[in-house]
Amino acid sequence: MRQQVTSLEAHGFDSPTTESAFSSSLSSSSSSASDRRLKTLVRHFVDSSPVPVMDSHSQNPNDTVSPSPTSSAFHADSVFAHLVRAPEDPILGVTVAYNKDPSPIKLNLGVGAYRTEEGKPLVLNVVRQAEQQLVNDRSRVKEYLPIVGLAEYNKLSAKLILGADSPAIQENRVTTVQCLSGTGSLRVGGEFLARHYHQLTIYIPLPTWGNHPKIFTLAGLSVKTYRYYDPATRGLDFQGLLEDLGSAPSGAIVLLHACAHNPTGVDPTIQQWEQIRQLMRSKALLPFFDSAYQGFASGSLDADAQPVRMFVADGGECLVAQSYAKNMGLYGERVGALSIVCKSADVASRVESQLKLVIRPMYSSPPIHGASIVATILKDRNLYTEWTIELKAMADRIISMRQQLFDALHARGTPGDWSHIIKQIGMFTFTGLNSEQVAFMTREYHIYMTSDGRISMAGLSSRTVPHLADAIHAAVTSFA
């Protein structure tokens, strides 16, 4: 800035802190482009100049107060000196460790982000097309969105998960607000329930995504678990699930993974979903769906939304958190939505008014770019069709990785039944490996995953499957 000020002084301006001096000098000049640029610079310099402050020892109003570099405050202990170093997030910490490993054969199977066969991040072609449309639209501005977000995006998101012909949508019984991806949608929903719902207990599956208990606890809910995964079969503990939900107090909230359960990859069948629905409705349990993988699990948007639509079709109420991180590859855009299906349009309207009061002091309004990408794709028939094709290609590649890993383990004669790898669905596989085996694979084979044995199938490729199969075989045979 000092260089810019010197440049102005060379044009006849003595001080960058007096707007009137600038104005009078400029008014006598010709209105050239150079003068207009100088006027703009003047405004910026004036606005950003330090405000003169007089202390008890100052005789000059232009003197500014600044701390002395020898002040004792500079030598005192930090007010945060008592803090201990927090541990790395158990999931994101895997990537931190991976990045520090210099090995050329290292493999990161920890974080759930899609990778190409070459191991590179993928930006969908349809996303690039949508972004180009947005860039070319000169009428677009960067004004704040309303508290609830982009209206068109909210409408299209509700249709995507609930179905375009959903009676709840047609009867205006659904309120949808744009949130900060799936995490933000869950947090807004959790805080809304903590403020306005009569039951403050939420039951989450055991195991579940590691962030779920933290989100709901900080939102003000009491977290309990229900049985979900059976380590013996590496499948669903359906009987345990029914018993635990049957014992839950009437009206309790129940978190349900809409599809591609994280971390196990184990989903109920449609028949089992129907039994779950009947049990929950009979006890007035409130469903809260987390839909992070619609279309990404089976390759079909409608099939992956079927459990949610079953609960909406019976006329009951529920909450649905959506994310476009996985199915559109918009991880860093943080695009999500929270829909609350109510009994009437009037109730939905009142619910929305209270959701605004949750969002306003939290982040005020959501970002516009990612939501605009999603809306552009969902409303354009050609772009939507292309998206479904790209989405199915991603899902099919993950399914192929499952088959290749199963075949590789079978070919090596690895002890145990590995059929769960091809029975599970979605981005993750719960391998059944224990923490000792995982540590061995990291140490000896430079393969990184969470300590519970969860691996991201999206991080695999045909080139790296043999390396992983060798590591699993060695781990299982070395540590039975």
Please count the beta strands (DSSP E, at least 2 residues each): 13
Classified in CATH, the superfamily of the largest domain is Type I PLP-dependent aspartate aminotransferase-like (Major domain)
Biggest sheet layout: 7 strands, mixed
CATH architecture type of the largest domain: 3-Layer(aba) Sandwich
The helix fraction, in percent, is 40-55%
Mean pLDDT comes to 87
Strand adjacency order, main sheet: 2-10-9-8-7-3-4
How many helical stretches?
18
Q: Return the CATH topology of the largest domain.
A: Aspartate Aminotransferase, domain 2
Give the low-pLDDT segments: 1-30, 47-59
Distance between the termini: 66 Å
Structural domains: how many: 2
CATH classification, class level of the largest domain: Alpha Beta
Q: Structural class of the secondary structure composition?
A: alpha/beta
Shape: globular
Explain what the structure shows.
The chain is α/β, with parallel strands linked by helices and 480 residues long. It has two domains: 90-122 and 395-479, Aspartate Aminotransferase, domain 1 (Alpha-Beta Complex), CATH 3.90.1150.10; 144-379, Type I PLP-dependent aspartate aminotransferase-like (Major domain) (Aspartate Aminotransferase, domain 2, 3-Layer(aba) Sandwich), CATH 3.40.640.10. The protein contains 18 helices and 13 strands. The strands form four sheets. A seven-stranded mixed beta sheet has the order 2-10-9-8-7-3-4. Strands 1-12 form a two-stranded parallel sheet. α6 crosses α14 (369-379). The longest helix is centred in the C-terminal third of the chain and has 32 residues, at 381-412.
